[in-house]
Design brief:
Shape: globular
Structural class: alpha+beta
Oligomer: single chain
Distance between the termini: 34 Å
Number of helices: 6
Strand order of the largest sheet: 4-3-2-1-5
Length: about 210
Amino acid sequence: MTIKGKETALRSFRGDAYRAHDLLWLKPGVLSGKRGLPEWVAAFWTDDMPVVVRRDFSADGLIPVGIRGRKRSERAATWISRQDVVRKLSPEDIIDNLRIMEDVPFSGMKPVKALQMLLETGWEAVWGVTGSCAFALVTGLAVMHDESDLDLLVRCPEPVPKTHFSEVSGILERLPCRADIQVEVPAGAFSLKEWLREGTGRVLLKCE
């Protein structure tokens, strides 16, 4: 059983329709008409699979997206038009689906167990799941394994103190797998672990 998408209101710090880590489903044949993509895309990709919005910028208003393959080494980047998109699922939408699902795909794997543990804590934050775990849950494809990291995203449109994350830091240490949290702010995103560890308060900010 895979997670089904649902129409959601467009949410963004800057009013953009699409943000990094959103999953997008495209009109049939969009990728097959793209030049310069690696051979594995044609062999693996089907029109019912989503692409992932990545961080980049186009003066022409195109959306930067990434294509995931079965292997970690299979990644491809391209650009699509907004008119190519037929459906969107954000990291938060996936979490909302998991809260109401009885049969969760890959429930025996450590990343999914860790995700369910976080859901049970009632963590009060605007957060979602990204990476291989998100892609596997949505598509039903075995693109993650038991030792995969759990990639998470937390939205922080307003400044917050480090103490705001003290509780979740303790929870992360008890999870059955390594969890990597990216904190999304209006200017970009940074690693929560790096921010909590760095005494100077300086962190690498991933920007578009």
